[in-house]
Specification:
nucleotide-binding; 23% strand; ABC-type quaternary ammonium compound transporting activity; single chain; alpha/beta; membrane; four-stranded antiparallel sheet; transport; six-stranded mixed sheet; 16 helices; CBS-domain
């Protein structure tokens, strides 16, 4: 997965003595001190980041942190004061007028918080609009528009006037219109923030579903940490025009960069972010399938537990045996392979804790954790799950 956008040493400054402002900032002056001494408002300060093809990259922060200013630099609604933004190896700030027009028309699109739809057009008329501007023939743009309307779940509403739609439906139209142009990058500036919670959750789910079918890059702005963690492959937290941390939701939850990040994410639903690999432990009672029942009994007795995990010689997970079954096997001269219970639950290390709460509550034994080759890599106990929740 290659880089689609590379941002280096990016500044957006307003008013005053800009070069002096940068000098003071590099000397350690904060935003307020810079403004007092130079009259410069620092909207963006030394932004450096890479965005990968096909990912959902979420930018989050409090109002005034610079997130909307940054995203508008990507489509040149804002022109950076200093620094570069490179799209597939081309600095967009140094593009010719023709190249810039091509970039804006074919490679990047935006979905706005206030929908930005044309009230005098119906649903399909709005979705077709960008294709119409590009000069596509009527038959082709109608075909693409219908595909996008189906993708966002608005079948049957093609001819509905925009003013007859709910807020959630209007935003679906906005997404369909943006996607109809097949952009490499879709910018979304707090697109769901004006919607009620139930509609917002539904659109978050729909966005993830759409993303699987349309493999473009999405740069998404929000002020809601749970929304950021739900949809983002990676998340960037901003403060006072600066990037504080860029990480996956799980990395940020388990290893926040500083106290500011910790405080910012403290209300996030941890169980929906943290995966099993962060809470699994090594099994204390591990039995090879070629071991004897007597050895299995000894291992369980020494560890003061009544069950053990059975693996092959190359650590493939085969199942569980209990102390009762091991004793029975010893008395009847059976082998471990004769008594192992292979009908047990197993999960991946990347499984989210929220997805195994019910499974763990009903499990007779700690759940085995296996990799893609069915190799046992750990176990998760009911106590581990409950304490994480």
């Amino acid at each position: 997965m290659g880089k689609i956008l590379e941002v280096r040493d990016l500044y957006k400054l307003y008013g005053g003595e800009k070069k002096q402002a940068v000098k003071l900032g590099k000397e350690g002056k904060d935003k307020a001190e810079i403004f007092k001494e130079t009259g410069v408002t620092t909207a963006l300060w030394n932004i450096n980041l890479d965005i990968n093809e096909g990912e959902i990259f979420v930018i989050i922060g409090l109002s005034g942190c610079g997130k909307s200013t940054l995203i508008r630099c990507f489509n040149l609604l804002n022109r950076p004061t200093y620094g570069s933004i490179t799209f597939k190896g081309k600095n967009i700030n140094k593009m010719s007028k023709k190249e810039e027009y091509e970039y804006k028309r074919n490679h990047i699109a935006m979905v706005f918080q206030n929908f930005g739809l044309l009230s005098h057009r119906n649903v399909i008329g709005n979705v077709e609009y960008g294709l119409e501007i590009k000069g596509e023939n009527k038959e082709e743009r109608r075909k693409k528009a219908l595909e996008m309307i189906h993708l966002v779940g608005l079948d049957g509403l093609e001819n509905t006037p925009i003013n007859n739609l709910s807020g959630g439906m209007k935003q679906r139209v906005g997404i369909a219109r943006a996607l109809a142009n097949s952009p490499d990058i879709l910018l979304m500036d707090e697109p769901f923030s004006a919607l009620d919670p139930l509609v917002r959750k539904d659109l978050q789910f729909q966005l993830l579903r759409i993303k699987k079918k349309v493999n473009n890059t999405i740069i998404f702005i929000t002020h809601d940490i749970n929304e950021a963690f739900k949809i983002g492959d990676r998340v960037a937290i901003m403060k006072d025009g600066k990037i504080i941390q860029i990480a996956t939701p799980e990395e940020m939850t388990t290893s926040p960069a500083n106290e500011y990040v910790q405080n910012f994410i403290e209300n996030a639903d941890r169980k929906k972010v943290i995966s099993v690999k962060n809470i699994m432990i090594s099994p204390s009672s591990l039995i090879k399938v070629k071991d004897s029942p007597s050895f299995a009994i000894s291992v369980m007795r020494n560890n003061s537990i009544s069950s053990a995990y059975v693996v092959s010689e190359d650590m493939e997970y085969l199942g569980v045996i209990t102390i009762e079954e091991a004793i029975k096997a010893k008395n009847q001269n059976l082998k471990i392979a004769d008594i192992v219970n292979g009908n047990v639950d197993k999960i991946s290390p990347d499984t989210r804790i929220s997805d195994i709460i019910e499974l763990s509550a009903n499990a007779k034994y700690p759940i085995g954790v296996v990799d893609d080759d069915n190799t046992l890599v750990g176990i998760v106990t009911k106590a581990d799950v409950l304490s994480a929740v």
